[in-house]
Amino acid sequence: MGRDTVGEYLGEGMFGMVMEISNQKNEKFAAKMIKATKDKPEVLKIELDMMEKIAADPHESILQLIAV
Ligand SMILES: Nc1ncnc2c1ncn2[C@@H]1O[C@H](COP(=O)(O)OP(=O)(O)OP(=O)(O)O)[C@@H](O)[C@H]1O
């Protein structure tokens, strides 16, 4: 299996930075790099639960969640 390539910095949110990733087929993804924190782990849990709920019911207007 080939390696993905980390591309440009896309931005930063409450949980950490977002980087562009390209796979071997040159398909592009956004990867959220979640900051390791001991503060408010329950807030991070809410965010992860929300992302998984969105992934369970995909919609053409909402970004697809590939993996957590
Ligand atoms: N799929 C994407 N394509 C391009 N840029 C993106 C993508 N996802 C995130 N970004 C960039 O990264 C930034 C941070 O995104 P992220 O989803 O982590 O936080 P947010 O939802 O914008 O803010 P917060 O986490 O504070 O609510 C965005 O504002 C945007 O600039």
TrEMBL record:
Residues 4-68 form the Protein kinase domain. ATP binds at K32. PROSITE patterns: PROTEIN_KINASE_ATP, PROTEIN_KINASE_DOM. Keywords: ATP-binding, Nucleotide-binding. The keyword Ribosomal protein does not apply. GO terms for molecular function: ATP binding; protein kinase activity. The keyword Nucleotide-binding applies. This is Protein kinase domain-containing protein. The lineage of its organism: Eukaryota, Metazoa, Ecdysozoa, Nematoda, Chromadorea.
